[in-house]
Amino acid sequence: MFQDLFYPRQVVLVTAATSEKSNVTAVEWIMPAGEKPEMLALSLRSTSLTLDLLCTSMEFVVAVPGEKLRDAVMLCGTTSGKFIDKFSEANLTQVKAKKVSAPLILEALANIECRVLNYTGCGDHVLVTAEVVEVNLTKTDEKIKPLMFEEGERFKISKVERR
Ligand SMILES: Cc1cc2nc3c(=O)[nH]c(=O)nc-3n(C[C@H](O)[C@H](O)[C@H](O)COP(=O)(O)O)c2cc1C
Fold first, then answer.
1. pLDDT tens digits for 143-162?
2. Could you give the domains of the chain?
3. Least C-beta-crowded within 10 Å: which of 3, 7, 59, 125?
4. How many angstroms separate the alpha carbon of residue 27 from the centre of ligand 1?
């Protein structure tokens, strides 16, 4: 697949919620997409519950996981919230966000609150562009190293250390 030429990629967790339900999923197809205003883009499978909730509320949160959330990310990326409560199964604590309906994840290194600007069909995926409306950095001793996804070696921590 041509996508293999783009490894490694950072994996994040994306949360979305309506008044009835909140959910979280793993996403590696994500990138910064604009500076002024700050924007990002991500691509979600059409069948994803997270996509459903995100398109209904037009809001979501990108939670940046560190090494400690490796197993939680795997669980969130291999099951659907249609069948289980992923927050509770993965021991992820939901915290009220400042500006959006989707929850922050307490255990994440950072939580980025986003408002959807546009979404458009992209084959079997939907491409979402969004404005960043709030960035929450978690106070933690854990070093800020992104959790990386690499083909054949499903999770690999980046050697690049960030301040
Ligand atoms: C490491 C990893 C990265 C993933 N990246 C994406 C992604 O970028 N886009 C996507 O739609 N699904 C991605 N997935 C798959 C979804 O997380 C998976 O289909 C999930 O079950 C959807 O859950 P939901 O129905 O609760 O939204 C990824 C899975 C893993 C394990």
1. 778 898 876 555 554 544 44
2. 2-157 (2.30.110.10)
3. 3
4. 5
